Give the backbone structure.
Amino acid sequence: MPLRTSSCPKMGSFAGRICQPNPLLPIVLANVKRVLLTATLSLALGASVAVSHAAPGSKALQDAVPDAVGAGSQTPEAPKVRNKILLIPLDSRPAAGQFAQMIAAQAGSKVLMPPYEALGRFTTPANVRKILDWLDAQPMDEVASMVVSADMIAYGGLIASREYRCEAKDALRRLRLLTQFHEKLPKHVKLYVFATTMRLTPTATKEAASYRLQLARLEELRDKYHRVGQKSVLPSIERLKKIVPPAKVAEYRKIRARNHEVQNGLLRMMLSNRIDFLVMGQDDAKPDGPHIGENIKLRSLVNTLRLNDRVYFCEGIDQHANILVSRSILEQGDWRPKVRVVYSDPEGPQKFANYESKTISESLADQLAASGAKMAEGAEEYDYTLFLNTPKRNPDTFKGFLDQLKQEVDQGFPVAVADINFGPDGTSDPELFDVLMQNDRAMSLLTFAGWNTAGNTMGTAIPAANVYLYARRFVEDPLPREVAKREFLLHRMVDDYAYHKYTRPAAYKKIDEAKQGRDEVYGELFKNVNEFVKTDLTGRLLEIYYTQFKDRPFFAGPNRYRFTNVEGVRVFLPWPRAYETRIEFKLIAEPFPNPVPSPVPAP
């Protein structure tokens, strides 16, 4: 059914904190250690470590051994591969689509998206008709799945979902077009959808700057009063009602009611089995607010419709293309990686991260399950370890956490790092990042993430680790996998740390000096800020590349390679603000040169 409607620049203190790499240990010795070492490396962190130990020779350790030590024996029979995924993203930001493309590249999968200009930009909605026409035109023979943002189809993107530009009936009609289209496709094409429970705070725009935070606080306190019965908040509610324009409050509630109606309709569409899997993502929130009651009602409907095995509720929204791309790829091989989790703080699992309405342990469990992975329990074998640095971590247990992290990475164990201990400026933990920059650890990690929110971060690190290890098991060509893994690692280190720690604050300073708000920047000022970001961040990208990746040997199959260059570097601000940036580049790998034999002296 057709759908219609040069040299490394000096970086000052940043470069000073990047330690120069130590000489490489002999490759043979490193490989021997990786085979013989047990997984019982816990350093008595007490309750801060959620541990499952693998015995020597277990599958978890075998998967950690480089391909150079006989990867053929660890590769099961490959599934029938359809290596294309069609992604209709949340919007045009890099986090909504580019990350998923880079993650999937590790398994040789291509994530295809509609034309960039069709995806909209900030407050300009997407061209949904053009997106649907693009989808209708795609050949489906090699397509494994469609990963679709319901908000893009229903409203024209995430920002548009927070505005009242269409009625619920119109949004649902568009979504029904999507499901009817999927029904006519070959059975092998799965449909994975993610939808948004609206965030507590309206979009940060110049127009909303005078009331948006107060409106969010008003709705948060109203929920505390009506749902929890907390009468002490009544004076604050009355004060805020005098500050926030009543028309804006009414509009906000009208939008929430419409979106909730559309979510209900989307759940009922699942009864026809036209949607294979659905993630209900919670955009930026708190433990109290109207979203709590909305999600309670949605969960109740899921139970009534008996959809529990096909619907997951997860914190965050920007990362769910990553989550569902991971699920799509893993399901092709019918493989679910088991993940051991190590926390930086014994109290970390029960904390609430900023902008989230669940505890960290609950949020993590949801992200794992939705991605296609599962938590390793007790002494169960595991495929990789996720080191999770939680907010306001305990300094006493953090030292042990870092020691354990260093030992496991240095000994070749499969390790992913998710840093959700953000500073006031949203930057990852400098002490943790410095450890990752030492001893060639940047080349050895499965992945690293530390951006925006806990859900965003976990929902990036977990899919990246899942897909890489899937590729080790099932994908025959190892070089693209190893290059793609390190491209995403470099991308995350530059974007998640260097940009937010150094470049973005300097960009904001330029905006502030011009006495313009940070929410929206246009004209000559935007041009100047964009040029600064391009120049500054390109230098920082090259700094990390030269100190952490260039000429470092790595295995792909039985062969050694090294990175000799980084090409196609492109940096720009995708939206009229400095909050996020887009970074593009390619790492160039060449065979590692064999050592020149010493001349044999004549007898």
Summary: The chain has 19 helices and 15 strands. The CA atoms of residues 68 and 476 lie 14 Å apart. Confidence is low (pLDDT under 50) at residues 4-74.
